[in-house]
């Protein structure tokens, strides 16, 4: 009986295949660009989070000015200081998390 409940619970796990914006105070234009860049980078560099983060950072720096920081990965915590209206925390592909922020 206990095994049956575990199977049902495992089957109910939902994996999102679309980007889920968990928190953002960016402008609409900046948030849209960040989400699109994150999805593209995570799909292009599915096995290398460092290259995905570098791609997002360099693109955001070019378009919105320098000093963006990006973390891509699974199962991490963070506490950061950032400029107002420049943070975006996204989930993509289930448990892949992307945090983008600007700090000069």
Q: What share of the residues does DSSP label as strand, in percent?
A: 15-25%
Number of helices: 3
Could you give the count of β-strands?
A: 4
* Order of helix and strand elements from N to C terminus: HEHHEEE
Average per-residue pLDDT, rounded, comes to 87
- Work out the radius of gyration: 16 Å
Q: Strands of the biggest beta sheet: in what spatial order?
A: 1-3-4-2
Characterize the structure shown.
With 104 residues, the chain is of the alpha+beta class. The chain is 41% helix and 23% strand. The protein has helices at residues 2-11, 28-44, 49-64; strands at 20-24, 68-73, 87-92, 96-102. Strands 1-3-4-2 form a four-stranded antiparallel sheet, covered by helices on one side. The N and C termini lie far apart (57 Å).
What topology does this entry show?
Elements: H1 2-11, E1 20-24, H2 28-44, H3 49-64, E2 68-73, E3 87-92, E4 96-102
Antiparallel strand pairs: 1-3, 2-4, 3-4
Helix pairs in contact: 2-3
Tags for this model:
single chain; 104 residues; alpha+beta; four-stranded antiparallel β-sheet; 3 helices; 41% helix
Short description:
The chain is an alpha+beta fold and 104 residues long.
